[in-house]
Amino acid sequence: MSVPDVDVIVVGAGPAGSCAALVAARAGLDVVLLERGPFAGSKNMYGGVVYPRILDELIPEWWLEAPVQRWITRRSTMLLTDTQAMTVDFRSEAWGAPPYNGATAYRPDWDHWLASHAVAAGAQLITDTTVTGLLRDPSGAVVGVRTDRPDGDLRARVVIACDGVNSFLAKEAGLYEHTDASHYTLGVKETLALPKETIDERFAVRERHGVDIEILGGTSGVNGGGFLYTNLDTLAVGAVLKLPALASQKRRPEEVIAGLKAHPAIAPLVQGAELVEYSAHLIPEAGLEMMPKMTSAGMLVAGDAAALCLAAGIWLEGVNFAMASGMYAGEAAVEAARSGDASERGLSGYQRRLAETFVLRDHRKLRRAPRLVLSDRVQHLYPQMVANTVERMFRVDNPAPKPGLRAILRQERRRAGVRLGDLARDGWTGFRSFG
Amino acid sequence: MSERMISFQERMATAEFRVHERAHIVVDGAVCGDCSTRECVVACPASLFVPTSDGGIVFNYEQCFECGTCYIVCNREGAISWSYPEGGHGIVYRRV
């Protein structure tokens, strides 16, 4: 049996890794937090909205110090066809005051801030270090990691893999059965500079209030969705694209963004804005359908590495799932270190916590949602049907009298080629997921 | 159109890449030479897979976002060998 160098090694200083390291270090464990980038957050991007309430206990009054761009007080869900747009727009002043709801933030800022809390708690952050593999004992239990540093082997009682969506560590440990391209979407984003006053005027917000627009349609026929978020003096505009559809539709990702930005409902919002950064990242989109086993002897997997991203159409969350799963992995590692049992059984507190909290409860409730939202009918048929129905409802065709809504719906359903049985089935799936 | 069109080169110049001398992704032309679908060419957000006139593919690793799209969409076993760059290298998203 090898002697551990430290109690816990956390691989990856993203939101999951830093929360895991923070919890374990606060409990008095000897923790090393490894990051392959030059600083925490340097490899990370997302659309742009974080829901931080999970931090209430870990970092009380986190909102006084978190590097937030704007607080989301206006949330829009937009449905686009080539020439139409329908938006459901909601505003709440309550979301502009503590404890807030969502916020836009830059990931290099956010992740760097969270990592600084882990360091303040006593975790040792080592950047510029890529983990290249697992160290295992003869029984197969994980006992450490190999890094690309000279003499770079490091041993620990527990390894927490927070190494992101590609998680080569979870794959090496055999926790993923297979990799299926249809479980992933590619997120591409443009960060566009505009003066704060211009953003305030265009999006009808003030001070640090901001807007979150989620978009169905407008992605050049590629299954996925669009987004538009306000930072303080930039906009984040981008698309989330299902990988096989992206490849088979022969659409380049940057062309999809260009198409979205040229849509008559979006173009006036982004006009004149200068590109300051183009970025891309994979998203584990399929929820429960793709999740790996999250515990093996000596190792826990958290965050994107465990496919803990919620992509359920009207709810798009990831950083909160990462922070929560990281916290719970940290707690389980503390239990294992104290009991001296880092076997699967000794680490079982992790799975229990995931199952008892929103982390897996939300995923179980919404297990059918990712497939539904990315289905061809929801992507290509329903938006046209709904937009045409609404257009006819509000069109005044005098001298013709107003048609009844039922008649319009029936005609537009047929015109869009939607079968009643499919509509009923999808409606029922949607109701069971979201209801 | 009133918007200024930017070239792909300008687009990629907005991101910072600290390039290491070792290529972290290697493409085996012998495996992908007769591939007709070429998902990587379409899907790579950095457009690093470039078809050549003789039917091959040229790959550049320097401006890679390290997203993983290429090896996940690829249908050819062994065509793309994928690893992360050496610590401290590769894409660096900026702090503002």
How would you characterize the overall build of this protein?
The complex is a heterodimer of chains A (435) and B (96). With 435 residues, chain A is α+β, with helices and mostly antiparallel strands. In chain A, 34% of the residues lie in helices and 26% in strands. Chain A has helices at 15-26, 107-120, 168-172, 196-203, 243-248, 253-262, 267-270, 319-339, 349-356, 358-365, 369-373, 376-394, 405-415, 420-434, and strands at residues 6-11, 31-34, 49-50, 70-80, 85-91, 102-104, 124-126, 131-136, 142-147, 153-161, 184-193, 209-216, 224-230, 234-242, 274-284, 295-296, 299-301, 310-312, 315-317. The longest helix of chain A has 21 residues, at 319-339. The radius of gyration of chain A is 23 Å and the shape is globular. Chain B has 96 residues and is of the alpha+beta class. Chain B has one domain (8-92): Alpha-Beta Plaits, CATH 3.30.70.20. A two-stranded antiparallel ribbon of chain B has the order 1-6. In chain B, strands 2-5 form a two-stranded antiparallel ribbon. Chain B has a two-stranded antiparallel ribbon with strand order 3-4. The longest helix of chain B is centred in the N-terminal third of the chain and has 5 residues, at 8-12. Chain B is globular and about 45 Å long. At the A-B interface, helix 2, strand 11, helix 5, helix 6 and strand 15 of A face helix 1, helix 3, helix 4 and strand 6 of B.
Itemize the secondary structure elements and their pairings.
The complex is a heterodimer of chains A (435) and B (96).
Chain A: E1 6-11, H1 15-26, E2 31-34, E3 49-50, E4 70-80, E5 85-91, E6 102-104, H2 107-120, E7 124-126, E8 131-136, E9 142-147, E10 153-161, H3 168-172, E11 184-193, H4 196-203, E12 209-216, E13 224-230, E14 234-242, H5 243-248, H6 253-262, H7 267-270, E15 274-284, E16 295-296, E17 299-301, E18 310-312, E19 315-317, H8 319-339, H9 349-356, H10 358-365, H11 369-373, H12 376-394, H13 405-415, H14 420-434
Chain B: H1 8-12, E1 16-18, E2 25-27, H2 29-32, H3 39-43, E3 49-51, E4 57-59, H4 69-73, E5 80-82, E6 90-92
Antiparallel strand pairs in B: 1-6, 2-5, 3-4
